[in-house]
Amino acid sequence: MFRLSYYLIRSYIGPFITTFFISLFVLVMQFLWKYVDDLVGKGLEWYIIAELLFYASANLVPLALPLAILLSSLMLFGNLGEDFELVAMKSAGVSLQRIMLPLIVISGIISGVAFYFSNNIWPVANLKMGALLWDVRQQKPVFHLKEGIFYTGIEGYSIRAGKKTGDNSISEILIYDHTSYSGNNKVISAKGGIMNFLNDGAILELKLTDGFCYDEGDNLKSRNNTLPHRRIRFKSEVLRFDMNSFKMERTSEELFRDHYQMLNIRQLTEVSDSLKLKYADRKKEIGRILEKRYSIFRNDTIPEKNRKIIKNRPVLMSDSFPERMTVEKPGLTNSDQVYELAMNSVRSHAAYVSALKSELHSRNDLLLRYNIEWHRKFTLSIACFILFFIGAPLGAIIRKGGFGMPVVVSGFLFIMFHILSIIGEKFARENIIEVYQGMWLPSAFFFPFGVFLTFKAATDSVLMDLDTYLKWIITFLYPHHRK
Question: Structure pTM?
Answer without folding.
Answer: 0.69
